[in-house]
Design brief:
The chain is α/β, with parallel strands linked by helices. Helices cover 54% and strands 15% of the residues. It binds ligand C2E and calcium ion (2 copies).
Length: 637
């Protein structure tokens, strides 16, 4: 049975598609879009769709001139048109695969199914025409077709796409899944309505809908409507473009602290001023509002050979306005450097300089700053590497140790473990240099665990050799305590080494905020029964909230070196420190004095209820392997 199909077509739908894609191209050029592989695929989608639209127009032209041209022409054009549409659907399937971040094992199946469909249906389509069961154009210009192969193939691809979206829906932000599904639904509805009215003009348009949602949802980098400037991502990709193109540029970075809080922005007059001056003083400068108070301007140096004078002028203007508004600022000017090939490094450099400069200054990044930054970056990279390798024996992390004198036993039987780094390019690095960096880059916990593991190992060794060791204390930061697995990690490492838990102590300083205090309390509760000892470090430097100190099961209070120095120099302080130590002792805490440097300190602290003494007078920090020089063997006790 042959069914007769007579459909109406006007090129308006396809012309609309070409126009919309033209607009896409304009938008893409104006916005900063990360040149990812998804984005390359997106561009291919646009190319294929444009080709489809043109082909469809020409195909219908050929149909209406059927009697003047070779018959193969409309057949070929129709075939090409359908293949373009289905290649486009195959691209969407790849697109979904990228977006859903499929595992390598899942990756191939869907695009492969699509590819088989593409070839299989293509072959059937040709055979259908040749053997008469498919698409045919009769001599009286009527189109006949027994089966609607196009519809079957269309549903086949839509089916794969929907299946992927539903199956892997957990991998993508929910509203995006919803938007994809609705987009497909709207395309299907439009196809259906078009069918009801025997239309064919809008087929290609429905294939543009997914592209529209892809561009909007996944590649959009909306402008700041007032500033015309863009967010951090865009700043990065702008720098990336310039670096790749080998362009010389300068970045002018302005930070106004007051507007850094969420939801704040520069006052409107100020923004208008900045925008107008940037546009007025520089050729083609790009302006990026990164956060409420942070703006970055990037200037091409080849287009602006006089950028130095211009910068000076713009800073003068800025200064005048500063006198008016009095907002604290930090301004940094960086020139592109051949050695820096990563946009993130420029951003890190700006932050590095910002963190180290006073308010209301302008800093030009010079050689000296660059060198300091590069050694800082070197430490950051090494710390990140240590953190990633997770090797408890990492030999870049060294344990130094300061023996602690025990007044009750008259011996050195405890010690404090102190961290050092030894890095290939810089040699020894001290904690005051790298601990703040490690904390900032979230690497501190790994370092602490390495110190703990190495300390346990040394204790194990010395216990085996017969030394008397009461315990060694290890410093932990509040960031360690915030780790969910902190207690388990500590217990696992100590147990794995096969030493009793009471050979280890945890030193921490007071924490001011309630949440951290609660975390410390909970951690101590989990660990207390194991027999581990707790030291309160640096007593006398913080807030010394007694209520809180009492609430935690500390065993030893470490009086900071500043208290020792104060007691040494004035008698009022001495009285106060002595009272405090007395009070703690009465309440069953042991008092340890830090920073004992002179004979005099030792005498003073011994009178002030000291149980333990630590300081250069006894020993400077030494490599932990040398601790046996201070400790004694049980047989000598
Ligand atoms: P801290 O916990 O107060 O450690 C004592 C610091 O005082 C050590 O400095 C030690 O060398 C120094 N010191 C000891 N006796 C004397 C003395 O008589 N006079 C003077 N002037 N100083 C003395 P270090 O090793 O440079 O450590 C500095 C800080 O770094 C430590 O202060 C601690 O807060 C931190 N730190 C060290 N190791 C670690 C660690 O493994 N983890 C964590 N989170 N922090 C650590
Ligand atoms: Ca300490
Ligand atoms: Ca201390």
């Amino acid at each position: 049975m042959e069914t007769l199909i007579s459909t109406s077509y006007t090129p308006v739908g396809d012309i609309l598609v070409i126009a919309i894609i033209g607009i896409f191209v304009i938008l893409i050029r104006a916005a900063y879009i990360k040149p990812s592989k998804e984005f390359r695929l997106f561009k291919w989608i646009l190319v294929v769709l444009t080709l489809a639209a043109y082909t469809n127009i020409v195909y219908h032209l050929a149909l209406s001139n059927f009697d003047h041209i070779p018959a193969i022409v409309p057949y070929a054009l129709r075939f090409l048109y359908h293949q373009c549409l289905f290649i486009n659907l195959e691209c969407y399937i790849f697109y979904i695969e990228y977006t859903m971040q499929l595992l390598p094992s899942e990756q191939k199946a869907f695009p492969l199914a699509g590819l088989f469909g593409l070839i299989g249906f293509g072959v059937i389509d040709i055979l259908g025409t040749v053997f008469g069961f498919g698409f045919r154009i009769t001599d009286d210009f009527r189109i006949t077709s027994q089966v609607n192969l196009f519809l079957i193939e269309y549903l086949f691809f839509v089916g794969i796409a929907l299946f992927m979206i539903v199956k892997f829906r957990d991998r993508v932000y929910k509203p995006i899944i919803g938007a994809f599904i609705l987009t497909i639904a709207i395309a299907l509805i439009l196809m259906y309505i078009q069918g009801l009215f025997n239309q064919q003009s809008f087929t290609t348009s429905t294939f543009v809908f997914p592209a529209l949602s892809v561009l909007y949802l996944l590649h959009s980098n909306p402008y700041d409507l007032e500033m015309g400037s863009l967010k951090l991502d865009s700043f990065e990709s702008d720098l990336q473009h310039r670096i790749q193109a080998g362009k010389k540029f300068a970045i002018l970075s302005i930070l106004l602290h007051e507007f850094e809080a969420a939801g704040h922005k520069y006052p409107k007059e100020m923004r208008d001023i900045i925008r107008s001056y940037v546009e007025g003083y520089f050729n083609g400068a790009a302006l990026f509002q990164i956060t409420g108070g942070r703006m970055e301007m990037v200037v091409d140096l080849d287009l602006n050979p006089d950028y130095k004078e211009r910068t000076k002028q713009i800073l003068d203007v800025f200064h005048d306005h500063y006198n008016l508004y009095k907002y604290d600022y930090k301004i940094i000017i960086v020139r592109s450097e051949d050695g820096i090939t990563n946009p993130d490094d420029y951003i890190a450099l700006i932050q590095y300089v910002e963190n180290r400069m006073p308010e209301n200054q302008i800093k030009y990044v010079d050689e000296d700053i660059l060198n300091k930054f590069s050694s800082h970056k070197y430490i950051v990279d090494e710390l990140n590497d240590i953190n990633e390798k997770q090797d408890l024996n990492d030999d870049r992390v060294l344990v130094y140790c300061q023996p602690v004198y025990n007044l009750r036993t008259g011996r050195y039987d405890t010690a404090e473990a102190l961290m050092r780094l030894t890095l290939p390019q810089t040699g020894m690095v001290y904690p005051d240099r790298f601990i703040p960096i490690a904390e900032k880059h979230n690497c501190i916990h790994m370092l602490s665990l390495i110190i703990l593991a190495k300390t346990c190992k040394q204790i194990r060794k010395m216990l085996n050799e017969g030394y008397v060791i009461k315990r060694i204390s290890v410093n932990f930061s509040i960031l360690d305590i915030r780790e969910k697995e902190f207690s388990q990690n500590v217990q696992r490492i100590v147990n794995d080494c096969g030493i009793p838990m009471d050979k280890i102590a945890i030193e921490i300083t007071e924490s001011q905020n309630q949440k951290d205090f609660d975390a410390v309390k909970e951690t101590f509760r989990q660990l207390k029964s194991s027999g581990i000892t707790f030291y309160l470090d640096d007593f006398g430097t913080g807030y010394s909230n007694f209520e809180r100190i009492m609430e935690l099961p500390f065993d030893i209070i470490k009086f900071d070196r500043s208290l020792v120095m104060a007691s040494r120099s004035d008698s009022k302080s001495e009285t106060m420190v002595s009272y405090l130590a007395h009070m703690f002792t009465d309440m069953n805490y042991s008092v340890l004095y830090e920073g004992i440097e002179y004979e005099e300190d030792e005498k003073l602290c011994t009178q002030m209820y000291a149980r333990y003494l630590q300081g250069y007078k006894y020993a400077k920090p030494i490599p932990i392997q040398e601790l046996d020089k201070y400790f004694v063997k049980a047989s000598h006790v």
